Structure formats: structure tokens, C-alpha cells
Amino acid sequence: MKLKLTKNRVGAQKPANKLYKVHDTEVPGFSLRIYPSGRKAFFYRYRVGGGRGAQIREPQIGDYGSLTADQARKIAKDWAAKVRQGGDPAGERKALREDPTMSDLFDRYISDHAKKHKKPTSLANDTRMIEQRLRPTFGGKKVKSVTRQQIRAFHSKLEDTPYEANRVLALLSKIFSFSANDLEWTASGDHPVKGIRRFEEKKRKRYLSQAELARLGEALAKAEAGELERQISPHVIAMIRLLVLTGARHGEILTLRWCEVNLERGCLELTDSKTGEKEIYLSPAALQILSELPRKEDNPFVIIGRKHGTHLVNIKDPWTIIRKEAGLEDVRLHDLRHSFASVGARAGMSLPVIGALLGHRETATTARYAHLSDDPLRAAADSIGEEIAEAMRVKRNG
Fold first, then answer.
1. Domain Tyr recombinase spans what residues (predicted)?
2. CA distance 128 to 122
3. If you write DSSP's letter for every residue of 76-91 in order, what string do you get?
């Protein structure tokens, strides 16, 4: 049957005992199928290629009801134009259906890149950001369909946590680069994260003063004597003291093994850290802590955990008790590393020396302590100025 498929004519078609077609007289290949169930659907038939290799395609445009006859005809005309230009609408739709989703990309990034090239802590952090932030928002989208506008809107919603927002954005940028360079799922070069402006981050600068260090020492002494609200492991206390005395990252002490402790050379010989192999020099006070710390058989770790052969996972709860006792509720464990550096800067040590002690790879990382290194000069200027002022002060007779 051939008719011009209009709203009234499509609506007037009644189901029969078997499927039948109505071909449109205006657009060749455009047709309506009426099923015995009463369902009606629009199709478009066309040829791909020529000669013996030619193939006939007849993809569905859509169901009547979801589309009107005029809407279906417009799509058929668009497809006809693509076919005349050598296109294949059905093939393009199939490829789009088979295109990987962002969830597929996240999984491949974790398995093929992060697990192979990242340290456990970095892997855990990437996984957390993907599961908590990225997958809920982008997981169901096709990789090629994600736009810069969508990512910018997502980033803007995280403005209350600028540091986290920027880290998630940086991870998403890395994932798109992995998609282009390793998987070739997307074009290399430009990707939708590029050009999105990061939030301004205010670097936290918290250093313990001499008085605060004294209060921390008193709180640790009370913990050792069992005078706090909860019994605290001597290994936790030792870890906190080592963080203050060495400037090490808390993960470096938390996972420290006895085989990496060289008491004769007075240093820690880390086989792995954030910056690779690293030596941390030990002061006499730090050496004494390690010399007196009890070891546990069959446990290679210095800061032993509750389970056999493991190290502590974290010291969040005991650290909360200790800093509360010391009146240092705003101090993080990482601030102890800053405090180690600040003491060196105030003593007049050069920034390269401080950077070497901390294991910084970039001098810019150590530059945050530059203002502290001015303190000895300021003290000297104050002393000289006061002496000159005293000499020039006019003394009057009473």
C-alpha cells in the first residue's frame, strides 16, 4: 500500500491479523509498519554501497506516538541526504550505541593505568574521587558526548570545597588524556576539561610556636603516663614524636619498616616514598625513640597495627585526644611537618637545606617557608636599631 503518510492517515490505519506496511509516496524508502498488536512504527529503507557488495538497511526511525508523521518524515529526509553523501545512518546509530560510557573509561583508567603506575595511597584517592564524585555524575554518559559546559557546571557545584573540586577536575583531565593517548577512544589534543578555570586555593600555613610545641610535649608525656581519657599505644606516641622530630610525611612513618631504620648511620633509608627512594636524617632525640621502641616478633613494621604483621592504618582518634589535651584542636598531623621546617627557617637555615631535609623535589615547594627565614634578620635589625636609638637618646637632668 502506498499513501502520503500524514497525521490523519497514520491514525486511521487499523491492525490486521498480520503485519503490513504503508509506503510513503513523498519520500522514497519512508514507510509505516502496523503490527497485529496495534503498534505502529516508522522505518526508512536505503542502500549502502554499490554493485555486488551493496547492502540494504531498514532501521526504525521511531514509534508512532513518540513521533508524529511529520517528525518521522523530517528524520527520513535527513537520513536520505546523508545516504546521498555516502553516509550510513543505521551504522552511525549502532556505533553510537556501542560507544564506551564514562563508567567504562573509569574502569579502564583504574585497571590499566592507576593500578599499574600509582602508589597505593594515590590509587585509593583516585578510586574515592571516581566513586564518590565522578561516576554518579558522568558514569552513564558516552565518553564522546561529555561537554565542557557539563564539566564546568559540575566543577561549579563544588565551589564550597575548592581544593577537592580542583583535585577532581585534575583527575578528570588525566582520565581524558588516558582515553586519548592509551585507548584512542577520543581524539588527542583538545578535551572537554581543557580551558576550565580552577578555583583559587588558599594555602594553609600552620606552624607550632615554641609554647605550642611545649604543650604538645606535655600532652605526649601524659599519654605515656596513662593520664589521658584513653590508653594510647606507645607506638602512636612514638609516631607523633618522630613526625615532629624528622619532618617526615605521616605515611612515611606509618609504613616504616625496621629494615629501613639504620641506627648506625642515624637515618631512615626509605625504599619508597612520594618522591621515590629517600633518606631521612635522625637527630639524637629521634634515634633514642627508635632505640627504645619495643619491637614485635614477626612484624616488620615500626608502628605496629592490631592485626598480625601489619602497621597501623591511621591514628586519627588518639591524635584527636592528644591535640585536645594540648589545646591544638586546629592542628593536623601534616602541620607537624610544617613546624619542623619552620624551626629550621627561624634558625637561619637556608631553604635548599630545609628542602633537602624534607625531601622536596621542587624548590618552589620549600619557598612557602621563605618568610620565616627572615626572622633572624629581623631580630638582628631590631637589636642594632635599639642600640643606636639608646645611644642617640638625649638624657635630661631632672
1. 203-382
2. 10
3. HHHHHHHHHTT--HHH
Predicted confidence band of residue 203 (pLDDT cuts 50, 70, 90) = low
pLDDT on residue 396: 46
Within the chain, all domains assigned CATH 1.10.150 are found at 102-183
Range(s) within the chain of domains with CATH label 3.30.160.390: 2-98
* Beta carbons of 206 and 331 less than 8 angstroms apart: yes
Q: 389: burial class by Cβ within 10 Å (0-12, 13-18, 19+)?
A: exposed
Amino acid code (one letter) for 82: K
CATH number for the segment(s) 210-378: 1.10.443.10
**Cell reading at 146:** 561529555
Split at pLDDT 50, 70, 90, the class of 143 is: very high
Q: Which residue has the cell 594510647?
A: 232
CATH number of 102-183: 1.10.150
CB 31 within 8 A of CB 42: yes
The more confident residue out of 320 and 375 is 320
DSSP strand pairing (30-34 vs 40-44): antiparallel
How much is the pLDDT for 131?
96
Helix (H/G/I), strand (E/B), else coil: 14: coil
Percent of the chain with pLDDT strictly greater than 90: 55
Q: Given strand 30-34, what is the order of strands in its sheet?
A: 2-3, 20-24, 30-34, 40-44, 60-63
Fold that domain 2-98 belongs to in CATH:
Double Stranded RNA Binding Domain (3.30.160)
Q: State the pairing for strand pair 2-3/278-281.
A: unpaired
Grid cell digits, residue 49 = 554501497
What DSSP element (H or E) covers 262?
strand 261-262
